Amino acid sequence: MFEDLKPHLIELRKRLFISILAIIVCFFVCFSFWKIILEFICIPLNNVLPQGSKIIFTKIQEPFFTAMKVALFAGFLLALPIVFWQFWRFVEPGLYENEKKLVIPFVLSATCMFLLGAAFCYYFVTPIAFGFLVNFSEGAFEALPSIAEYVSFFTKLVLAFGVGYELPVVIFFLAKLGLVDDKMLMNNLRVAILIIFIFAAIMTPPDVFSQFLMAIPLIGLYLASILIAKKVNPAAKDEEDSESDDDE
């Protein structure tokens, strides 16, 4: 069994190496501009901080490691097309010839959907979420947020939205491979909604509005994925064709 898996493990190691190498290269590029990137990341928080409050650091090593984390986060986003391309190259041997031609649509759609989710989080969710968290005490405490904790929270939130917005892309290719169909997705709609709300509750701030800002678009994407699966699932098409032949 190990001998059968060995070529796949070698191929996986190769694709992971290229992906990590791409992220490292992009990391060094972004590290040269970490201050500009950090200023952009801090805009949602600075916009809701009370007058006189500011972002601080409490440990001597905090600015350096924050700069590295910011550069790594930006480098990952910059390397996304290469990461998705390597993922496709890993699964490509198991695809049909007509499916192998979908590499460019896959890389473009996966990258765009991830960035769309990240942008939605940055421009719509973070202002509301951070406004709620900062003003929750109603002036009982002075706001002096730590830059390391803020960057960790921000990146976690943005990555969660990016991953969540990959749902239609994942469903499209699973349906294309015949692993899921629209009936299966529709039958599991309630379970999917429950999982989406649990995911949103874990990944977003504790206010209900932020959770809904994540859950509602994901539910909409799941419903759109049902339509996508209905259009592209080969098994469903074959079943429809067989039914039409029987009627004739």
UniProtKB/TrEMBL annotation:
Pfam families xrefs: TatC (PF00902)
Membrane topology type: Multi-pass membrane protein
Residue ranges of the TM segments: 16-37, 70-91, 103-133, 153-175, 187-203, 209-229
Cellular location(s): Cell membrane; Membrane
Presence of keyword Transmembrane helix: yes
Database matches in InterPro entries: TatC
Keywords attached to this entry: Cell membrane, Membrane, Protein transport, Translocation, Transmembrane, Transmembrane helix, Transport
Protein task: Part of the twin-arginine translocation (Tat) system that transports large folded proteins containing a characteristic twin-arginine motif in their signal peptide across membranes.
Family recorded in the similarity comment: Belongs to the TatC family.
The protein's assembly and partners: Forms a complex with TatA.
Protein name as it appears in the record: Sec-independent protein translocase protein TatC
